[in-house]
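Holo prediction — S-adenosylmethionine.
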Amino acid sequence: MPTFTDRIYQLRAARASHGEIEHWVLDVLDQLLGLSYSQGARAEVYLGPGGGRADVLVQEDVVIEVKRNLDDERDDAETQLRTYFNARRTLNVGVATDGIRWMFYVKSRGVPRLYHEFELPADSPDTHLKDLILVSLQAFRRKTPPPVDARQLCDTLKLGTPTFRLSTELLTAGSAVANRFRVERRAWIAEFKSVYPGFDDLCTALGEGNLDTGYSRLYIRHTYLVVIAKLLAAIRIFDEAQLHQMIDHRPGEVLDGTVLLHNGVRVADKDDYFSWVREPSDELKTFVRELFLSLERYDFSTVDEDVFRLLYEEVIDADTRHRIGEFFTPKWLAQFIVEKSVTDGQYVVLDPACGSGTFLVESIRRRASLREKAGKLTSNDLQDLVEQTWGFDINPLAVLLSRVNIYLVVSRIAHRNRLPPIPSFNPHIQTADSLSRIRSSRHRTLLAHGTGYYLTMAQQMVPVPPSVTSLDEAIRVGSSLSKVCESYVSKKAGGQSHKQALDSALELAPNAYRPALKEIVNALRDELDDGDGIWGLVYRNKVVPLFSGQFDCVVGNPPWLVYREMDSGMKAVTDYVLTTYDIKPPSKVKTSFDLAIAFTLASATYLKEGGRLGFVLPRSLVSGLQHLPFLERASSGGLPIHATEIDDLQGVMPPPFPHGIPCVAAFFERGGDAV
Ligand SMILES: C[S@@+](CC[C@H](N)C(=O)[O-])C[C@H]1O[C@@H](n2cnc3c(N)ncnc32)[C@H](O)[C@@H]1O
């Protein structure tokens, strides 16, 4: 069976008549879009005096003008559409098409204004044509853009929507010709593999038995979310004309977020795992245009919640998330915890498992309103709020979504208070392993590697130079490693031996760092020899938590995972916590001990004396024998934190998590016997 695309290309090559092309359009509407006559797609409709007959009318508000060749008949088509708009008030959208070229017009003061166009590539599958038309039409079905919320964004972009299908299809096609795709995908795989147990099983399932296909599918989905997030931030910054101009002329810079950076808004690191899209092919150009079309029909100026929460859940499927202990918190529960924990507008707040930023967004809103109560909000307050908001997550995608969420909510607060946008936005939201303090002190003790810290990267132990003792230095050593790795990779690619490349790359680093950086490059030699230079960034993300300051408040919903489902690395960390804090459960229930409790103790190390911690924790905290030693010591003062309140959320409606997973809201304060 020829596809619709094959048929229209044949018709056009044979110089088909107007009637034949109109017939093809009706078949597309009927068979591809399911718009049969009864559902409102009618041909040759009389529009009343002065309107004449429209070729096709869809559901009273879309009129389609069919032409044999739009290149020659565009003016005529526009005149016709204007006539139709004048004759029928209900019409909002006009489409002119010759089957290959499609031009979409919106009624603007009674006149057709071109809003979008696409050309149907030869050999496209039918789904491609269908999605192109649906995305274009949906974008026009609006009068004034509605304010967006998490639910709407999710419904427009989740799995199975035309935008999702079209985007992932175009991204997949674009990935085949992008040079950096494989390199960045490899670094992304290494990163996720080292932190998520069962990552390969999960990708194998996604790839229907083929691991490599599964990697690519998940990576493409991540890239899809990343570009959505970057586009949303761009939509908030630029006006419509600027955006169209950039998408048409600098699509690569829109796709990789460079346009944001040029405006002082840093939502991603320059070398994140998703910059392969910056070399846009035709497919990627179409992708960004179509995606923009789906997004620009909303008003993002009123966003005051984590808009990505639901979408993230839908796009990264539930099974995947469960296996990695991710249950995203509903807004009301995050608000509840934040309200109880963040009692001062000046607090410096950390969410050590920030996900897409639900708690961080709420903590900003909360502190802004506390500050507003104390007096008029100023631009300095906004800058402070950003500076005083910290988030860590091991998932780089989550970090990017958090950053954009924070940008949207801070912009909203600025707008509401008639303040200018903040001039420089670079929040402290990092891809970081919040357990790295615990992991590295464990290594230090157990492996007796001298005085410095050791970290695990790509399954190797790598050192932190002993001279690094502050956050600034931690960031500096990460940048040094980036430079060294990049130089080493390019020198190796240029034919130098390992020793030559290493020696000359190390010259770029300060003397004090050289021995440690040499050890790291040697440990990562296989990865670097594959041409992968992203390790400086990964390293920095692991080192930063070691030297992060002391916070007034820590809030969030840590990863939940019972002992029996942990991989060996997590089991070792948990064992270390159980021993160090003397909270070993009876051995028969140890398999049910939850990582969330170990995470709570690790997070307490980020608190200043008297600081507050509010977490969503599994209900087994209060009901399970496995957590009793922890609970007893947290109540009697034998731990660095003591419990101040635990609210049982059993039976609360609506249930916070799917499948009725029971939880509590637990509050602690730093103070007690330090371990
Ligand atoms: C239960 S989700 C909570 C997300 C978010 N706080 C919320 O409630 O909506 C847990 C998050 O912890 C992150 N995570 C898991 N292990 C981590 C680690 N060692 N360091 C930092 N983040 C981690 C996961 O990537 C995930 O985003």
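READOUT: The two ends are 72 Å apart (CA to CA).
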